[in-house]
Amino acid sequence: MTSSDFLSRIAGMFVFTLMGARLGLDAAGPLDLPTDATSFIFGLVGALFGLIITPWITTRPFRYASQSIREMPVDIFFMTILGGVLGIGIALLMTYPLSLLPQPFNRIVPPALSVSMGYLGMTVFRLRSREILSLLSERMGGRFGRLVAAQSHRQLLLDTSVLIDGRIVDIAKTGFLGGTMLIPRFVQAELHQVADSSDALRRNRGRRGLLKVNELMRNNITPVKIIDDDFEDIPEVDDKLVALSLQLDAFLITNDYPLGKVAEGQGVSVLNINLLANAVRAAYIPGETFPLRIIQEGTDPGQGVGYLDDGTMVVVERGGNYMDRTITVQVTKLINREAGRMIFAIPDGN
Q1: Helix (H, G, I), strand (E, B), or coil: what is residue 269?
Q2: Three-state DSSP state, 163
Q3: CA distances (Å), 290 to each of 326, 331, 335, 340, in order?
Q4: How many angstroms separate the CA atoms of 146 and 190, rounded?
Q5: Is the alpha carbon torsion for 205, 207, 213, 217 positive or negative?
Q6: Fewer CB within 10 Å, N side or C side of the chain?
Q7: Virtual CA dihedral for 177, 179, 185, 186, nearest 10 degrees?
């Protein structure tokens, strides 16, 4: 329970207690009941009612409205306001003819029509904001509307693995993502927990993720927002990310292969960083050669393993004899997977 909810419950308890006590005094006579007892019972009922219902009619609607406005892309927010203004404007043009209706319709219909037209305009313009912005941009011959529609309509939800990986920062600076990146508070909290781990490797990974969040917030190309949405009844962070992606109709950006498959199975659109890296990575074809440093043994006897600068694993047959040496290898096979790319090679000349 938040402090605002607690304070509203206390205030509501006092207000509804007084209202209940007053109602009990007024009802005691017609019901032929003792005045003090009736007032006391009605006051207790009012106090209970105030404790339960007050946040739902005070703080929570305001919190929901502010959260919706904060998370709404700029183009949708602008078009929603414009639709409401146009709807009310059309209703005002019809006010005079409707005021000529007989009593009591001349006093009821105009305000009801204004509310209905305002709501209808906001709803229509919100649902069709992208098409309307594109149409206005084409009619005015400007580029701004198209850029706004392209950049701010999509919402991109980042998971913990992407922030720890760090490549998302460089991708965001290119402007290719075309959307607003969202970082949930519970993802930041998980990064803090990892950064406070007693294990040195986990601690360094968590600190790297927090550093990348700060770098993302400072980039001037792709907008980034920290959101407070959470699901307290869902314990796992991955499950929260899937639920939040469905709630916001957002793309989930990850390089966690199992999470991506679970999310896709529930209807979430997933953008896998590893697939993007594979798509833009320089590809070697069988027969090409390049220098490689063998740094560890492979799973099979005699194999050696090295890595390219971009992290691609290269498995070298008969490469175990060249441990801790840089040799020229020849590509024999290339395997592309969603979890990453793997190259098989042999020492050049064999």
Answers
A1: coil
A2: helix
A3: 10, 8, 17, 20
A4: 37
A5: negative
A6: N
A7: -60
At 253, phi and psi to the nearest 5?
-100, 125
* C-alpha span between 237 and 164 (Å, rounded): 15
Q: How far apart are the C-alpha atoms of 210 and 129, rounded to whole Å?
A: 34
Residue 306's DSSP bridge partners are 314
Between CA 305 and CA 34 the distance in angstroms is 90
Rounded CA-CA distance 154/168 in Å is 16
75, 152 in Cβ contact below 8 A? yes
Mean pLDDT value across the chain: 83
CA distance 215 to 255: 19
CATH number of 154-278: 3.40.50.1010
Direct distance between the N- and C-terminal alpha carbons of the chain, in angstroms, rounded to an integer: 70
Sequence spans of domains, the chain:
3-63, 72-148, 154-278, 284-347
Strand 304-307 relative to strand 313-316: parallel, antiparallel, unpaired? antiparallel
Angstrom distance (rounded) from CA 320 to CA 138: 63
Long-range pairs for 215-218 at CB < 8 Å and ≥24 separation?
Answer: 215/169, 216/163, 216/168, 216/169, 216/172, 216/181, 216/183
Q: How far apart are CA 147 and CA 141, in angstroms?
A: 13
- Compute the average pLDDT of residues 324-341: 82
Q: What distance in Å separates the CA atoms of residue 150 and residue 139, rounded to the nearest whole number?
A: 17
**Cβ contact 241:235 at 8 Å:** no
Phi-psi region of 324 (alpha: psi -120 to 50; beta: other; left: phi over 0): left
> What phi and psi, each to the nearest 5 degrees, are found at residue 160?
-65, -40
H-helix or E-strand spanning residue 326: strand 326-337
Residue with tokens 């042999």: 346
The arrangement of secondary structure in 284-347, i.e. its CATH architecture, is Beta Barrel (2.40)
- For the sheet with 155-158, list strands across it: 224-227, 180-184, 155-158, 251-254, 270-272
- pTM, two decimals, is 0.48
